[in-house]
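Hi V.,

Quick status before I head out on leave. The structure for the redesign project is tokenized and pasted below; the design run finished overnight.
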């Protein structure tokens, strides 16, 4: 069967289908693929023995059962990560074999209580396992399933002797993914490591941006400065696109900004994050009248952003994203 390219805009499964399964598990990634996602997103952190694994943060008490393991009680500690004190258990203090004894759990049980029924069913996956899943699913479905890894806290990990970049590039090279058209995007909130990656690999790079703050490596004064026309020109020198927080494109109140057009003007793709169905996360115009965990009108919110010209988007609910994307592309919608 011929492998088909992803339609536009691409649907990126944010930590997998994390609205319906514990995030960053093979359960979540498999469901996202079944729901039609074009890319699955692993946030990458290293183990003590240098293996890249998928966790939203290197502190894992909120996403695993590590606190229930008596043998690891003494590993609890406080560290300074990107200038903030964090207390808990950290992947870099565990070997891969030790991490594999843990089991994943739902990170947002108050908003997603249904996901807790999958607690304890999945291990922490390695990057190798995620690449293998994407390749197997591509063969089975005839669609190209890509990966969209984020390098988490790259400056911090470099400072403790566990740099991420060479490890990631080596895995991508081994997978045959060292081309500009490879089914891979590498993303980061920092700048220096993306510039380093630009000289190490030909795969597309995405500069993440938040609605507040600045890169942890101090390379730019603020994300707001990076989102200006002049700032975007600087980003275009080393990256293929930007991944802005979606409120940088559409504020909670007020009209859409010019960010999409400004980015396109300098040749950057725009992949905003993150589209979630719960009222707690939706823009006010798309919320239902229910509780924070009730679902509002996510498909409508996504459709609005598609109308603004985005090139892809991150969603915890890939099937809603795929449905909204396909509906936006239909002739009836264009009339």
């Amino acid at each position: 069967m011929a492998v088909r390219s992803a339609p536009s805009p691409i649907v990126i499964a944010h930590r997998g289908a994390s609205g319906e399964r514990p995030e960053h598990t093979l359960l979540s990634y498999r469901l996202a693929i079944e729901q039609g996602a074009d890319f699955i997103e692993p946030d990458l952190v290293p183990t003590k023995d240098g293996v890249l694994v998928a966790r939203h943060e290197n502190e894992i008490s909120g996403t695993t059962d590590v606190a229930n393991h008596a043998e690891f009680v003494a590993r609890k500690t406080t560290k300074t990560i990107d200038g903030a004190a964090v207390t808990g258990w950290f992947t870099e203090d565990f070997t891969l074999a030790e991490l594999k004894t843990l089991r994943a759990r739902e990170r947002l049980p108050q908003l997603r209580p249904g996901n807790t029924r999958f607690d304890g069913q999945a291990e922490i996956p390695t990057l190798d396992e995620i690449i293998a899943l994407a390749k197997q699913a591509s063969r089975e479905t005839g669609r190209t399933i890509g990966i969209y890894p984020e390098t988490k806290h790259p400056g911090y990990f470099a400072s403790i002797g566990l740099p991420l970049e060479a490890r990631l590039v080596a895995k991508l090279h081994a997978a045959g993914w060292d081309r500009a058209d490879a089914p891979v995007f590498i993303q980061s909130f920092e700048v220096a490591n993306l510039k380093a990656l630009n000289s190490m690999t030909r795969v597309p790079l995405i500069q993440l941006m938040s609605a507040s703050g600045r890169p942890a490596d101090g390379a730019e004064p603020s994300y707001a400065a990076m989102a200006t026309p002049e700032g975007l020109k600087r980003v275009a020198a080393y990256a293929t696109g930007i991944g802005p927080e979606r409120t940088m494109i559409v504020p909670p109140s007020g009209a859409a900004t010019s960010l999409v057009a400004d980015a396109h003007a300098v040749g950057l793709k725009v992949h905003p994050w993150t589209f979630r169905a719960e009222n707690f996360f939706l823009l006010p115009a798309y919320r239902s009248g229910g509780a924070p965990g009730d679902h509002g009108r996510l498909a409508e919110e996504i459709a609005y952003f598609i109308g603004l010209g985005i090139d892809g988007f991150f969603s915890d609910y890939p099937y809603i994203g795929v449905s909204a994307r396909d509906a936006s592309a239909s002739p009836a919608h264009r009339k």
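Above is the designed sequence. The first strand starts at residue 10 and ends at 13.

G. will cover questions while I'm gone.

Best,
W.
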